[in-house]
Description:
- The complex is a heterodimer of chains A (about 550) and B (about 325).
- Chain A has helices at about 1-15, 15-30, 35-45, 55-65, 70-80, 80-90, 110-115, 125-140, 140-155, 160-175, 175-185, 190-200, 220-225, 270-275, 300-305, 310-315, 340-355, 370-385, 460-470, 530-540; strands at about 220, 235, 240-250, 250-255, 280-290, 295, 320-330, 335, 360, 385-390, 405-410, 415-425, 435-445, 445-455, 475, 480-485, 490-495, 495-500, 505-510, 510-515.
- Chain A has about 550 residues and is an alpha+beta fold.
- In chain A, helix 1 runs antiparallel to helix 2 and helix 4 packs parallel to helix 6 (about 80-90).
- Chain B is an alpha/beta fold.
Amino acid sequence: MKRFAQLFQQVDATTSTNAKVQALAHYFQTEQPRNLVWALYLLLGKTRRRLVTAHTLRKVFLQVSAMPEWLFSDCYAQVGDSAETIALLLQDIPLRQGQPAVDDLNLPLHEWMERVIPQVKDLETETELVACITSWWAALDNFEVFVLNKLLTGAFRIGVSEKLVIKGLAVATGIPEAVLAHRLMGDFAPTLGFYQQLLSPEATERSPSQPYPFFLASPLEVDRFQTEDLSQWQAEWKWDGIRAQLIHRSGECFIWSRGEDLITHQFPELQPFLQSLPSGVVLDGEILCWQGDRPMHFNHLQKRLGRKRVSQKMITENPVCLIAYDLLEWQGKDWRNYPLCDRRQQLLELLESFPSPVARLSQALEFSSLADLEQLRAEARQQGAEGLVLKARNSPYLVGRKRGYWWKYKLEPMSLDAVLLYAQAGSGKRANLFTDYTFALWQGQDLVPFAKAYSGLDNQEINELDKWIRKHTLEKFGPVRSVEPSQVFEIGFEGITESNRHKSGISVRFPRILRWRKDKSATEADTLVAAIALLKLMDRSTSAPG
Amino acid sequence: MPLITVRPEGLYCEIGDFFIDPWRAVDTALITHAHADHARAGSHLYVATQISEGILKKRLGSQIQFQGVEYGEPLKFGNIWVSFHPAGHVLGSAQIRVEYKDEVWVVSGDYKRCVDPSCAPFEVIPCHTFITEATFGLPIYTWQPGATTVKQIYDWWQSDRDRPSLLFCYAFGKAQRILAELTQFTDQTVYLHGAIHSLTESYRTAGVSMIPTLSTSDQPRSYKFKGDLILAPPSAHRSSWMKRFSQPQTAFASGWMAVRGARRRRGYERGFVLSDHADWPGLVQTVRQTKAQQVYVTHGQSEALARYLTEQYGLEAMPLKTLFEGEGDIE
Ligand SMILES: [Zn+2]
Ligand SMILES: [Zn+2]
């Protein structure tokens, strides 16, 4: 535990990726295998199990510390995280006194994870729980307490991406990153057996469910693309659904989302199709709600997500379809290193041999010049797509976001100039700054709130706006402040729909701040009428839910 | 009538007709210390500790009318006795004690209780009413000894001798405290941004012992600062001044660095927890040691500290709205 907490601290203390990779590599090189797999499991966010809620942790703390609850709340407001707040507060509270001497808790990580921490599940009374957690706190230093609290509450996220963890492991073991990324995909149990598989020099038997890491397109670098030979490129629509990997191996079917969630059972209508394919096949594609020759509004797909059971009614009202992009495995062989054109040819044959109403090949769009591409991109909205994806015909299917092979060329988002009306403090790392904003449009003489946005400003602008908000607060309602309606922001969004839950009568998708328009005064902001005009434009291109 | 009240100009003692750390120009300004939120320009007469004269004049101009006092030296303003006592915050910083008949008030200015080799240690002054700061007035703020943190800074510097190490910290106080603490670990030369360099000269004149320093601007263009430690004020972060250093590792030393979110938000590679303000235990302990029954709280988290003192110790404690800013981003 000490070593893992140290690693966490080193990785967390720095924003330099180099230093993070170094710390990770050093840890992986020197740690015992049984602890190493646990560390990987935790760093990659494979655990979502919550043994104790943040609320309970807080109750335990208040009981043993005798701190007034309001003071804890004030501290929490400043820190934005219960686990950290408690760890910081425990620095100054002598828990060790009066506690029974705990036997040595300087245990390795796997002991903590397998033997010690699971104990909380078997405790029957609150008194036992308080005693147990307190004895752990008393035995650990400040940063270990923080890590332990994170483990207990299952909110273990740390300032290091999957990519860096894998890089660190690659440095430590000499196994290529792509191989490790593949072996770490999907679920695994943090066992010695898995460790041996992970680090084995040869390709190993994989479990039938194991997906490949997704390959992602990067935002188009227009300048770089100018010089490309366009005949070597393929263009497809960029759809706004669920990117998924569909697997049929040894008679079993699996559907994985890009977030590595198994979503097989959310889409039962895709199963017969998948079953019908020969075993040993893996497809990459997009799942969309589809009607006729076009996607339905995203709201339909939304209704299908995250459900345990899908009713027939749900399926009839929100029918899905797979738009197949790529073939990653064929006849049980990894095809990812073949060029895209070969993979696509095989995919085409496959879909023609096993036709299904729920599966289509992603269309390759005709173009011969950059101007054609511009034209297509401009038509994307009418197609119900969110832009184009450009793929090099000879590109292998790589891992993650490697630039130069696949580009995404998204539509300009729709945008409106709106006035800042309310502000609220953020959470987490922005807990003591005003970072959640509500924007409004004109309706006659009134400003009507139309969107909330949290992102889009850089740190310097956030700090500047925070200062401005504090100086120009009109009223405080709990955590929310109303401010002088004078600052104009350009708000971008992906979609706009009618909504009777909103005062403005509209709701926008993925709103974000594009620019702080210091050059504009509030009177120059857009009107609700302008927003409704955009809505009508959208309606012509996608069928909104009824 | 209270001995000290808040006027639009600042904290005011009517009987003695003087202001303490006024934020507007007044006739007589008693200054606790030369930080920008406590010492502002335009007043007719400045009264402060003798040792702070150099820095105060650097900041407000050498033409100001200055009256220096020694720590503990009694001064009389009308019927009021006034004296300055060490606050342990920065060089020359003082608490100001005000006595009228049998009543004693103390204005703390900014203070800390941790050991700091670059200034005189805080002295507890018993009083009836204590006006305290509360920049870090929440129990999440608990400091380690300065030497411990400066050892971390030293290790960070030594861990990468191929690049320049740029440490950002307040130019007045924090920088010199670090330079003084560093004498325990090394005698290598540290390079200073111009703003810090000139203040450090004042510390040397006052006899504070620090490791050798040079100004970055005095180095030849070709000099690469490879493996050097450089101190700079936060305002220089991401400025054109920084272009001179190729691929530096960067860090920020401040009390705010105690919270993970604050650390990550600032965009420095590392954060070191080092403050010249009292931490929570220091604030509570100090208020209790003064035996004051009435406490006014300024700076930052004044409401939490006031409520805590009222509830836990039955003191008459309340927040006092002032324009003091505490440990801001830019000094
Ligand atoms: Zn100060
Ligand atoms: Zn101050």
